[in-house]
Amino acid sequence: MKLPKMDLTKKMINQESFTRQRIKKAKEQMQRIQKENKRKALEIFMYKCIAGVASLENFDKRDAPEMSWVINQTLSHINPKMEAMHIAGQHHDADPSTSASPPECGPINWNN
Questions:
Q1: Would you say residue 53 has pLDDT above 70?
Q2: Which keywords accompany this UniProt record (predicted)?
Q3: Whether this model's pTM surpasses 0.90
Q4: Rounded CA gap, 32 and 38, in Å?
């Protein structure tokens, strides 16, 4: 049974619209993943610079705004932890019973 030309045209337009939406969503997802990958690469580069393994000579200045975002995100994760450690350290220093030296570790087995 053949569909009337009007119904067939409508069905083709719906299929085309559906396909366009799928393509648009796939492109948006690809752009999000590319941005995430770029940020991860910049984060790795940042840590390599901190470790002295990489140099800013290798840094592309066009990435400066994104690197700024990566640094700010990293600091926003680190600062609360540092603050908590600072507060815990103040409480630790105030209690003389907790001022013992750290426990010693046993020998390290380098063969494993």
A1: yes
A2: Coiled coil
A3: no
A4: 10
